[in-house]
Amino acid sequence: MRLSTKGRYAVTAMMELALRSLDKPVTLDDIASTQGISSAYLEQLFRLLSKHQLVKGIRGPNGGYRLARSANDISIAQIIVAVDEKIDSTRCEGKANCQGGERCLTHELWEELSDRLFTFLDSVSLGYYINRPDTRSLIARSS
Predict the structure, then answer these.
(1) Are 72 and 126 in contact (CB under 8 A)?
(2) How far apart are CA 122 and CA 55, in angstroms?
(3) End-to-end CA distance of the chain
(4) What pTM does this model have?
(5) Does the domain spanning 5-142 belong to CATH 1.10.10.10?
(6) Engineered SS bond to 76: which of 8, 43, 85, 121, CB 3.0-4.6 Å?
(7) In terms of Cα–Cα distance, which of 10, 22, 25 is closest to 131?
(8) pLDDT for position 76
(9) What is the signed CA dihedral for 125, 126, 130, 135, rounded to 10 degrees?
């Protein structure tokens, strides 16, 4: 399984949002400058994240984005799925037509890996990750 830039950027942006939106909404420009992601790309991602009710936009002069629910209630898998990423290690995208229209010898292995990856990513919340000691020390260093 390869996680594309879209999935990685979405998770990174959501982590930044979870860390910074406690006091006030965070603008996409703030996330863009802190994380080195283009604002235009973030707009596309946040449209999808909003559609999946993971973030909510706040309009007005002090506007920006906030998490739509607690960081503990948003899993990494939900973020990845929201931006149309697939957590799939199979060659055939799970269709079991990997080898000349038939299931390949290792299909079940890759399918089980995909299931385990999804289960793992679904068990990790934003809240858990941003409260890890390593994450906290990184935040303190960059402040």
Answers:
(1) yes
(2) 17
(3) 34
(4) 0.87
(5) yes
(6) 121
(7) 22
(8) 96
(9) 80
- For tokens 């679904």, what's the residue? 122
**How much is the pLDDT for 142?**
59
Residue 6 half-sphere exposure toward CB, CA atoms < 13 A: 16
DSSP letter string, 54-90: SEEEE-STT-EEEESS-GGG-BHHHHHHHTT-----S
Residues 6 or more apart from 40 whose CB is under 8 A from it?
none
**What's the angle, vertex CA 41, arms to CA 89 and CA 80, rounded to 5?**
30
d(CA 90, CA 70): 33
Q: Which residue is associated with the tokens 């604002």?
A: 39
User: In terms of C-beta density within 10 A (0-12 exposed, 13-18 middle, 19 or more buried), how is residue 40 classed?
Assistant: exposed
Distance CA(103)–CA(129), nearest Å, equals 37
Residue 18's identity, in one-letter code, is A
- Specify the higher pLDDT residue, 1 or 73: 73
Distance CA 113, CA 90 (A): 9
Tokens (6 digits) for 103? 């299931």
